[in-house]
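INTERNAL TRANSFER SHEET
From: sequence group
To: structure group
Subject: Multifunctional fusion protein

Please process the attached sequence and return the structure record in the designated field. Keep the field labels unchanged so the import script can parse them.
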Amino acid sequence: MSYPFSISARDMEEHLVQEDKTPVLRFITCGSVDDGKSTLIGRLLCDADLVFEDQLADLRRIGIRGGNGEEIDFSLLLDGLEAEREQGITIDVAYRYFSTSKRKFIVADTPGHHEYTRNMVTGASTADLAIILVDSRQGILQQTRRHSYLASLLGIRHVVLAVNKIDLVDFSEPVFDAIVAEYVSFSAKLGFASITAIPMSARFGDNVVLKSGQLPWYQGPALLEYLETVELDPADKQRASRFPVQLVMRPNPDFRGYAGRIASGKIAVGDPVVVSKSGRRSSVRAIIAPDGNQISAAEGEPVTLVLADELDVSRGDMLVDPASRPFVADQFQAHLIWFDTNPMLPGRSYLLRTETDSVGATVTALKHQLNVDSFVREPAKSLQMNEVGVCNIMTQRPIVFDAYEENRSTGNFIIVDRVSSATVGAGMIDFPLRRADNVHWQALDVDKAARTALKNQKSAVLWFTGLSGSGKSTIANALEALLHTCGKHTYLLDGDNIRHGLNRDLGFTAADRVENIRRVAEVARLMADAGLIVICSFISPFREERRMARELLEEGEFIEIFVDTPLEECARRDPKGLYKKAFAGNIANFTGVSSPYEAPEDPELHLKTVGQEPATLALQIEEFLRRGMEEKQRLA
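Return from structure group:
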């Protein structure tokens, strides 16, 4: 890459102004492994004279194919991870910025391996266009279909079908035509606005930057020419203004500003705005940018807005155009892409994060899974890694959003595991569930405090957890009898009894077990609200579901009791003959044998049952409750 030795200050200023006005195209490269994605972008940068001499020298030093000193391995410009260079594959998403006189570009080179689908989703989430590579020798593969479907799902509407390695099939027009016909046929239902097919050889540069003389039958543009001229959304298409508040600025009592990045549209001084959650109205008094005050700001600009009125606005709120307001709801349908090796289970509690908000959320229903290879809807009870499903999601409080197809910035979210803090899924919101508009909390005159006062007790949920045969039900039954003699109002929810009625429709898969505990936790919450001491005896093998039950209740109201009995002792007791069947393989998903049990890490009570009588252990729990009640009365 070279530049003139001298340039006037005026020319430089004009150049920078023009550069700032140059439109930006974000695109990704994707496809199957070894289709040549990294090589294509490396060749594009080199042939367009967009690589520095020292980078080329480095490539010549470490990237000579076969060590013969004749051919540069252009893929190494993007495959920066040591593991990628060793394996010859792309693992991470490699971003590169470059520009020509006509356009600026941000390209994401995404992995081709199936297990790195999440990385491909990351790269596609902000892209305007996808270059989908196909090896001329292999044609359309499963990953071609998968990546095309995901590109469509993520809102990409323009596709370049790069039929690569055309030199290895003797620059054959029939081979090219057959691949294009097959791709156009299967992608017809994906809703792409345009599909442009280009035959090329990334290795030798045919049709990458310049038209190739080896392909006289091809009359279309070379890749760079197409990227420079492709028309995306019309310039006059104006989306509604959206300003998610990321930070409230209060450097002194006289100043209140709201910092963030404009997600869509434009905002100008004097424009009316609405706080999306509260509905409070104001107008923009000032717009403060990094370089000072300005009259207006557009999509993508980081600014601080100062309003004409003092309003209650916090992180997670969104300032919007009053004439085009987003949805505010706690229930919605979404397409969900699952990333984690542990499956997504409806009923399990996760964290849902938007651009500025974070809230507890549960998948209330998995309506169907989408087969990304055949595009067929299939029934499913869970989502495995890299699978896509259509779900109903409920959040603990309302969030602000648009439909993803209308606004990608405000219609997306990620799902985070509460324990590991790992991002386990990504979603695109379809629409709010209308039933959320019809269901509201009804104010009641008699509350929990009044009910517990009448019973002269503190409501609580005593959650017994442990292996089958550990003694949970026996101890729980003894405890209820003891509390009853003390005049306490109780109710015992037992795992087996519940499955005869409320949960008779559920089996013992991981998904059904999550739903089993979710229902029980909701019933226990209602009973605690009635002022009862609720005794729950359930294996409840997963920590996440016990955490979910705890979070439904008030602080200190959930008491986890770990009935700790070794597996060998439980199997020796085997009161129902279940262990014998499980060890023989006649019972699937049996906790402790063919399904895991996640022991509590910090329970309120840890009962070791070996050598202890159930009545003695019940007395320990009753004493724990009595001490807690006395402490509460003392503090009151």
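Handover comment: The chain has 17 helices and 28 strands. Confidence is low (pLDDT under 50) at residues 1-7, 80-91.
Transfer complete.
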